[in-house]
Input
Amino acid sequence: MLTDNNNYSLLQPMYPLLIQQFVDDYHLDKGIAVDVGVGPGWLGMELAKISNMEIIFLDISKESLSLAKKNVEFLCVDNTFSFIEADVAKIPLTDNSVDFVMSRGSIWFWQHPEKGLQEIYRIIKPGSHAIVGGGLGRYIPDSMRKRMQSALKRGLEKRNEKRPDLQEFMHIVEMAAIPHYKILTDGENGGGRWVEIYKEI
Output
């Protein structure tokens, strides 16, 4: 039985669509992918289902990694998985060693987001991408988007939390001084705030 936490049950239908978007955008199939800030592990698990990539789950939270491990046990796939307990501001991986990094919804909780982005840039191989931020992706149907956005907004209000707006997010990215990046959204009226990081060959 898959285990969950917080509002991931609400969001779970979004993850396969978001991963399909990543696979299409970045032509993912083989190599090493890192899922940063894993939660229950949905992103890495969905990528494993439709690719041959080795998946590294990285999180500062021992509890999140334990939850992701339990969920991975239920997957009927033959990908290689590993789990690293570490701060994104100090990733214990070598320079230019991974083919893709993805992180959804965790940057808002990083103590030093600019350092985390710098570390992600450091570990991706030349010619590779990373995508970091938050949103529901471009592929989600409008009716599902409205339902999820409304529920997420209520959750933030209930917890008295606030997420950076697009301008504040851009400032965080600018502080990282990454050589090559793009700020993306989920499309017209789609919301979302993402930074796509690219390392030139």
Q: What stands out?
A: The mean pLDDT is 92. Residues 166 and 193 are 6 Å apart (CA to CA). The beta strands are 32-36, 54-59, 81-85, 98-104, 124-134, 181-184, 193-198. The longest strand covers residues 124-134.
